[in-house]
Amino acid sequence: MMKKLSLVSLFTLFPASCYFSQTTVFAYLKDVNGKPIERAGVDLKGNGNDVMADNIGYFQFVDVQPGHYQIVITKSNYETKVMEFDVSDKEKRKDLGTITLYSNLLSSVDQGLAIIDSDDDDGNSQTSTVGLLQSSQDVFNRIAAFDLGFYWFRPRGIDGRSGEIMLNGISMIKLDNGNVDFGNWGGLNEITRYPEISVNHAPSEYAFGGNSSVVYKNTKASEYRRGFQFTQSLTNRNYRNRTSLRYSSGMNKKGWAFTVMGARRWAEEGIQEGTFYDAYSAYLGIEKKLSDKHNLTFNIIAAPYRRSTASPSTQEVYNYRGVHYNSYWGYQEGKQRSERVRQGFQPIFQIQDFWKIDKKSSLWTSVSYQFGKDRGSRLDWQNVQNPSPTYYRNLPSYYDSLDPNASEPAGPDGVVTGMQQAYQTSLSAWTSGDPNVTQLNWDNLYRRNTQQPKGTYYGQTGKRALYYLVDDVSDDKIFNVSTHFIHNFNDTTKFLLNASYQNYRSQLYREVKDLLGADFVLNRDPFAATNQPGRSGLFNEGEENVTKKVGDRLTYDYIFRRQEIKINPGLKFATGNFDVFVSALAGYSTSSREGLFNHYLYKDSKGKSTDYNFWNYGLKGQIIYKLNGRNFFVYNGAYYSQSPYLEDLFINPRVNNSVAPNIRNMVINANDVSYVISSPFLRLRLTGYLVDTSNETMVQRFFADGIQLNNADDQGNETLVQSAFVTQVMTDVKRRNLGAELGIDIKVIPTLSLQGLISYGQFTYQNDPVTYFASDAAGVFSNGLSYMNLGKAYIKNYRQGGTPQQAYSLGFRYNSPKYWWFGGNWNYFDDNYLDPSALIRTESFVQNSNTSTPYHNLTEPELRRVLEPNKLPSSLFINANVGKSWVIGKYYILFSATMNNILNNKRYITGGFEQTRNAKFPNFAQDNDREFTLFGPRYWYTQGRSYFANLQFRF
Fold first, then answer.
1. What's the DSSP call for residue 657?
2. Per-residue pLDDT tens for 339-370?
3. Judging by beta carbons within 10 Å of its beta carbon (0-12, 13-18, 19+), is residue 48 exposed, middle or buried?
4. Cα R_g (the chain), whole angstroms
5. Which positions carry the signal peptide feature in this UniProt record (predicted)?
């Protein structure tokens, strides 16, 4: 009956389309076995029309005017299909033929992948790469994103700073550090869900990019399915609940389309102890069709959030308290309170103009403005010991490192405690989980502050804060303009031109958040008395008010500015069995810092720096050789330069205008060759790749409490710097990422597929870069500079850290004809390392400060033993996913669920960093040989078994 109705409708509408000189576009949908696919949604983009295929897989659009079009075909359990076609003036019927949809369990399900980050005391952070890895048609990238990305696996060992994330033609890369803040649109999964991707260093139509993919997200209001979509999710990750509602009007007869969405994610306590999550997100899209050749869109994206973060810890602490331990919180009057709270609100406003110039040319122009503040709180203190429960003097290992026959000084109660007893008391408290020892004691911090006697400081009388909370604030203003031009010379040749301009301004400062019962805090260096005797110690000399209250700025205040222009022409053409894509880059940037505080140690702390200008050039190419319709060879090559980001250029921006010595543009040379099979029963990609990076400047900043470094000024006065915020800089770093990838998908029977992935790499440092050291508390060294040369860091052939260099996955998926599915996979990781600390591998590390010669009796085998690479344990995981969809009249319901780490493996270390406290070999070796080192590496562990359940309702 339905087949007859389809034929009747076809022949009924055909004469009408002829009469009005317009076209009927039609096609048939089938699976890989040739069976019709019914009830698939087909959206005609830019037209506001959407239809549903009938029971023989047939669909059609009538009264389609001449022009260039795109359709998006969606069906539960199948990959989303995007097709483009042209309708000419003389065509009455446009037959798109038979369109094949491939089964895909994962891309049709909102995986609910959370971006998990942790900020630690030392300024290090770790971010899951899930946000960067998007699903694509490629089986390797799909598995890497949905199954391996959750465990911080980065394909080819490339971090996100070398990629490009675009939203409506605008780059979302922050020019201070090259990262992307996915929280700016967090929770809007249904809006930003189906991006276009050029993987790795392959050329893209939208931007030149880098070597970790170009991801282009489009949010045109007319391109969403008409109607409502409600989603409810439950999980045990950073947040526990997610609720969202989206409505799209489609394009109406007057040429208007509206899409609006709101979402919330929240948790009173996440999977990590003492963490909470509260984030809202909203989207408003308005589109106006001015004519058949002209569309205008307006988008607002706003995602305010407030959440707490979790700490990394040493192995000693994890042994006592487990992998969910978090040192950043404690009880205040019986309620949990965290010192590390991130909150921000940086809305994005965008206008985009789509102009179809003629049949062969089109121009897209985007204007964007983003502003707002991002805050991160932390506990600070002056002239008292670090109150963190994981401070090395608060752990059992500290007491164990001391003379067991010695005694602690008498406490407030007058009792003298022996070291053996102190060790046993501390060990008992940590193993039993005494919150007065293992967590922050907020009540005690308030008590210490309120018990302070009143005093007069810089003309103000009151109680000076020993402990207080601060917010590190980033106040951003980002203006972008970009344009995307396309000209089709013919069916096989296309010219592309992208141009962009970004004006980035960010004011960064610290302000008082909570005085914890005190009246004010001093804007003065608490270590000045010991590190810089005789100096004022003022962070802002000459200011009227040194005593700071809530909302006042202290410690640092400066402005980053950067302007960047990029021109990116490209050419795509086909000849014979070859498809070729060539893309070029010319770019220019100018960067500066303006200090607003007059730091007591640095003459160049206040005022505007020199403008630092850099030119960038690049070339990318892709060649596809088609053996036949199912077998291909693909080559991708890239050679380009990248100017340093602001935080790489200015090595210590909180206190001065100093730039990294010998800084140059980083140069990347990336190549890969792939063999690809794409058939109904076998999909495979086998790739070999080589990525060389040179001229890289690597800056690491951390707080070192316990470091001991001698500083001599130009007068010969020596100072022992013991505690400070320090900077480590390596220049002219050379790295090599070499390896092979295999992704395979085999259809055993029509409803069952097997999938596999192999990633084998060697990611190493290729030279011994020169290393420099700077410190907030050291001032200008005897060389007249604010940094000192420590010589070469001997890290050649050390493995790079941050990701497993071996990864394997094997899984299956069963797709029932009755619209339910089930899948699972096994994953294994190996060759995961911590990045080597440069400071403890320099010439200075092994030299006696008195003789400037290597330490006596220091042998090469002993040095290698102490400084051997920090390899992390291998691990395996099992994941599973399941889902079911229903169509009830006009209503569509989808349930899906995933479970990661079913075996509850809590031994996997996802990353971490080597602490740098002992900067000389004897002290380092002594500490390294203890059962629990006082300054051992800090780790992040996997969070154990996790789940995500999702219910979606469309009406």
1. -
2. 999 999 999 999 999 999 998 999 999 999 99
3. buried
4. 30
5. 1-27
Q: How many CA atoms lie within 13 A of 462 on its CB side?
A: 17
Adjacent-strand bridge partners of 820: 884
Show the tokens assigned to 100: 């094949």
Q: Phi-psi region for residue 95, left (φ > 0), alpha (ψ -120 to 50) or beta? A: beta
Report the amino acid identity of residue 650.
F
Tell me the C-alpha distance between 4 and 7, whole Å.
5
Report angle CA 22, 26, 32 to the nearest 5 degrees.
160
Count the alpha carbons within 13 Å of 525 in the hemisphere toward its beta carbon: 30
Q: Residue 212 corresponds to which amino acid?
A: S
Partners of 626 in beta bridges: 632
For the chain, the residue count is 955
pTM beyond 0.70, yes or no: yes
Cβ atoms within 10 Å, residue 232: 14
HEC sequence for 537-588: CECCCCCCCCEECCCCEEEEEEEEEEEEEEEEEEEEEEECCEEEEEEEEEEE
100-105-107-111 Cα dihedral, nearest 10 degrees? 170
**What is the Cα–Cα distance from 827 to 251, expressed in whole angstroms?**
45
Question: Quick one: DSSP state of residue 410?
Answer: P
SS3 653: coil
- Could you give the CA distance from residue 324 to residue 311 in angstroms, rounded to a whole number? 10
Q: Give 763-784 pLDDT, tens digit per residue.
A: 999 999 999 988 887 788 878 8
* Element of type H or E holding 262: strand 256-267
Q: Burial level of 884, CB count in 10 A (0-12/13-18/19+)?
A: middle
Both tokens of 126, joined, read 């770790």
Residue 616 reports pLDDT greater than 50: yes
Beta partners for 87? Answer: 67
Task: Give the number of other CB atoms < 10 A from CB of residue 432.
Answer: 10
What does the DSSP assignment read for 813-862? EEE-TTSEEEEEEEEEEE-EEPPPPSGGGBTGGGB-TTTSSBPTT--HHH
Question: Residue 503 and residue 825: Cα distance in Å, rounded?
Answer: 45
Total Cβ atoms within 10 A of residue 137: 16
In one-letter notation, the amino acid at residue 510 is R
What is the C-alpha separation between 602 and 597, in angstroms, rounded? Answer: 10
Residue 520: both structure tokens together? 């004010």
Q: 638: which strand partners? A: 620, 670
What's the CA gap between 646 and 502, in Å, rounded? 14
Do 650 and 593 contact (CB within 8 A), yes or no?
yes
CB distance 382 to 466 below 8 Å? yes
The backbone torsions φ and ψ at residue 846, rounded to the nearest 5 degrees and listed phi first, read: -100, 5
3-state secondary structure 451-514: CCCCEEECCEEECECCEEEEEEEEEEEEEEEEEEEEEEEECCEEEEEEEEEEEEEEEEEEEEEE
Q: Is 594 helix (H, G, I), strand (E, B) or coil?
A: strand
* Strand 335-338 versus strand 214-217 pairing type: unpaired
> Among candidates 839, 813, 823, 824, which has minimal Cα distance to 920?
839
Mean pLDDT in residue range 15-21: 38
Phi and psi torsions of 928, nearest 5°:
-65, -30
Q: Give pLDDT tens digits for 559-573.
A: 999 999 999 999 999
For 119, the enclosing helix (H) or strand (E) is strand 117-119
Summarised one tens digit per residue, pLDDT across range 408-449 is 665 555 555 788 888 899 999 999 999 999 999 999 999 999
CA dist 384 and 456 (Å) reads 19
Q: Which residues contact 622 (CB under 8 A, 6 or more apart)?
A: 202, 203, 579, 580, 581, 582, 634, 635, 636, 637
Burial degree of 671 (CB within 10 A; 0-12, 13-18, 19+): middle
Count of Cβ atoms closer than 10 Å to residue 850 Cβ:
7
Q: How far is CA 491 from CA 89, 97, 548, 725, in A?
A: 17, 18, 68, 60
Alpha helices in 222-359 (DSSP H): 315-321
In this structure, what token pair is assigned to residue 846? Answer: 């092994």
In angstroms, the CA 445 to CA 411 distance is 17
CA distance 61 to 72: 13
